[in-house]
Amino acid sequence: MKRKIAMITGATSGIGEACARRFAASGYDLILTGRNTEKLDSLKSTLEGETDVLTLTFDVRDAEAAAAAVGSLQGKWSEVDVLVNNAGLALGLEKEYEGDTEDWWTMIDTNIKGLLTMTRLVVPGMVERNCGHVINIGSVAGDQAYAGGNVYCATKAAVKTLTDGLRIDLVDTCVRVTNIKPGLVETNFSVTRFHGDKERADNVYKGIKPLTGDDIADVAVYAANAPQHVQIAEVLVLATHQANGYTISRKDS
């Protein structure tokens, strides 16, 4: 019986890497994409003992490179069963009228345009085969804006709307669509947001036990492995002491 194939973008760290490990453990072969060849190769060598792994190095912001990479897939690799649109980031926490425009464009190009690019490249094959699953990694930030989140929150609101729209467009097929919306997850997310300032990033998680990448990967695998007639449309996943994007109870350590 053919093993299913999961394509995971942004697979070299955080939620993407956790998804790679969890999907491998669940019996999927993997197509892992990212910008860092060395990290992709390292993850591939770790996982190859339990599953087949193919790596593709490109930036989802580069539509031509993405198209060339997906277009190069041959044989079994050309039939992607699960697309995990994970590649994304937050940059900066300034007031909107003081924000860095380059940070804005990077978030928009990655979180929105990159997701759309991968969806456009992979989903037509799913429709043709009348099977498949798209799992978009959104955020609680897509439900409500929080101070300093402005553009990042807007991109994740777009992910929610694009996910809902895709689900509507695919309602007459067997292709399922899921939006997973994490709250506080301790990965490199905040280090990236603060341009490498680890001390500032660590303060984001101070006084609360945050989620891990594995927690979100578990949800993704659960959604993918649900019976075919079950579509997990949207999942909001928060730390126990987080109520929404900005209401958090922190304890003194």
Give the key terms.
single chain; alpha/beta; 7-stranded parallel β-sheet
Mean pLDDT: 96
- Helix content bin: 40-55%
Uncertain spans, ≥5 residues at pLDDT below 50? none
Task: Please provide the count of β strands.
Answer: 7
Can you characterise this structure?
- The protein is an alpha/beta fold.
- The chain has 8 helices and 7 strands, in the order βαβαβαβαβαβαααβ.
- The protein has a 7-stranded parallel beta sheet, sandwiched between helices.
- Helix 1 (about 15-25) packs across helix 8 (about 215-225), helix 3 (about 65-70) packs parallel to helix 4 (about 100-130) and helix 4 runs parallel beside helix 5 (about 150-170).
- It is globular.
- About 40% of the residues are buried.
- The mean pLDDT is about 95.
Summarize the structure.
By secondary structure, the chain is α/β, with parallel strands linked by helices. 42% of the residues lie in helices and 15% in strands. A 7-stranded parallel β-sheet has the order 3-2-1-4-5-6-7, sandwiched between helices.
